[in-house]
Amino acid sequence: MKNLQRLTLPLLISAFFLLSSAKVADDKSTERIQKATEVLKDFSKMSESIPHQLLEDYQGIVIIPKMLNGGFIVGGKRGQGIAMVKLANGKWSDPVFITLTGGSFGLQIGVQSVDLVLVFKHKGVLTKVKNGDFTIGGDISAAAGPVGRSSTASTDHTLEAEIYSYSRSKGLFAGITINGSNLAINKTANAAFYGDGLSSGQIFEASKNTSPAVSELKKTLSAL
Is residue 2 part of a domain? Predict the structure, then answer.
């Protein structure tokens, strides 16, 4: 009996820590979704926002809350967020967790926190990332997105860019260079939230998750 207890106790302790770690990771993933929703809500309250027409016509979106951007002469940026694509029925897919990293060179100093939204013309740009990564600027360049409240977006843009970028710092739209940045799938966060059995491609193809955080995210995005 004592030998059995000696064998069982370490296994129970290990299982407890594994479950606790998974719970913490899941909580962080849920928090990331909630923060992405907050970014969309904050954008919608601004006097100039992402044009409704753009979200109607384009097929993918990346939302990165509080991305760190800064440096001294040589800069860098890093942020974690989510990506979603539009399905054939017009609904948005479940969110895939992603990481964006990059560097820049120029006259800059200090660090700022930026909310970043990228709108993609073709969802294949995101769904093909899968196990690799994607370089913005190296593969497809990003342009500063037009702003407007009307459904037709009263701008000179013809909505032809493959990626439009929107960034906000301290409540205002802020210019930021993202060409040269690398976008990669965050497999750890995806596994923590969905389980080990789903690939990013499978998540992009579905809209089945009904958790409160995901449901609110989809509702907010659809209403933007």
Answer: no
- Structural domain for 209, as ranges: 30-223
C-alpha span between 29 and 202 (Å, rounded): 18
Q: Using one digit for the tens of pLDDT, what is the confidence trace for 78-124?
A: 789 999 999 999 999 999 999 988 755 444 445 567 888 999 999 99
Burial degree of 201 (CB within 10 A; 0-12, 13-18, 19+): middle
Residue 21 belongs to some domain of the structure: no
Q: What total number of domains does the chain contain? A: 1
Task: Of 65-79, 91-105, 155-169, 182-196, give the lowest mean pLDDT range.
Answer: 65-79
The answer to whether residue 78 sits within a structural domain is: yes
Q: What is the pLDDT of residue 113?
A: 77
Q: What is the pTM of this model?
A: 0.79
Residue 17 lies in a domain: no
Q: In whole angstroms, give the CA distance from residue 34 to residue 126.
A: 21
